[in-house]
From TrEMBL:
UniProt keyword Cell division present: no
Binding site for S-adenosyl-L-methionine: 61, 88-90, 110, 144, 168
Name of the coding gene: EFM7
Main localization (coarse): cytoplasm
Name of the molecule in the record: Protein N-terminal and lysine N-methyltransferase EFM7
Gene3D superfamilies: Vaccinia Virus protein VP39 (3.40.50.150)
Species this protein is from: Penicilliopsis zonata CBS 506.65
Length: 263
């Protein structure tokens, strides 16, 4: 039997480096990048994208750009003096454009992940010099379906909800449809003029039927649904993805308002 007290035996058991990960075992973290969105009036919004993220916050989505253009084109009626909430904002381009174009209050939100929220705050700070004094841009973390008291606290005194909600490329999260409808119910002001913009691209075209189930669910929740546009982009966002290329290049836009019987 081996004598475990024998120093020579102990030396033979040396395991130096056994628990060290081999070089290149872990992929290096990707560095943040920057992207630019050119507004229709020529102003350029520059944002930082996180290096990599499971919620794809490292991209500037086609639906986000399209939402920003849609709102800018209609700023006089939809934004001036109005209160706006964006959920799933990622880099926050639509929120920033709303603030620049004169919305009274803008609240930019995404999942309450510290990296995401810090990046949104950074992007909001980059835009400070372009935002008029009459507008305020706030940033917060928010998980869809959770209580909304914190979001409503940003509204001016006397306001009961937001005039405009922005939901750009969020309905692909099929399991979250119920929570998205709940958030809309709790945050959209009870007014015939209030609206939620739901804008998305079917990056996985075979899942489009599941994505579209959001709309009858929203109708059950008290909203009317109107398709407002279908825009074909010049390029797909993910070139290597399979499926119908035309669908992957198309941005669909819907407008949701309170049904009259729910006002």
């Amino acid at each position: 039997m081996a004598n475990l007290d024998d120093d020579s035996r102990v030396e033979d058991l040396a395991v130096g480096g056994l628990f060290e990960d081999p070089e290149g075992f872990y992929q290096p973290e990707q560095e943040p990048t920057f992207a630019e969105h050119q507004m229709l009036d020529g102003h350029v919004v520059r944002v930082r994208l996180v290096g990599s993220h499971p919620l794809y916050a490292n991209l500037l989505w086609n639906a986000g750009r399209t939402s920003a253009h849609y709102l800018e084109e209609r700023a006089a009626g939809l934004l001036h003096g109005k209160d706006v909430l964006e959920v799933g904002a990622a880099a926050g381009v639509p929120s920033i454009v709303c603030a620049v174009k004169g919305a009274r209050t803008v609240v930019m939100t995404d999942y309450p992940d510290p990296e995401l929220v810090e990046n949104m705050r950074y992007n909001a700070s980059l835009a400070t010099s372009s935002i008029p004094e009459s507008s305020t841009l706030h940033v917060d973390g928010y998980k869809w379906g959770n209580p909304v008291d914190g979001l409503l606290s940003y509204l001016p005194a006397g306001s009961t909800g937001f005039d405009v909600l922005i939901l750009a490329d969020v309905v692909y999260a099929h399991r979250e449809h119920g929570n998205l409808v709940k958030t809309m119910q709790q945050t959209l002001k009870k007014s015939p003029d209030s609206l939620a913009l739901v804008i998305f691209t079917p990056y996985e075209p075979w899942l489009l039927p599941k994505t579209e189930k959001f709309f009858p669910l929203a109708e059950e929740g008290g909203f009317t649904v109107t398709k407002i546009f279908e825009k074909l982009m010049d390029q797909v966002l993910f070139e290597e993805d399979p499926g119908d290329e035309r669908l992957r290049r198309t941005v669909f836009g819907y407008e949701l308002r309170w049904a009259p019987e729910h006002l």
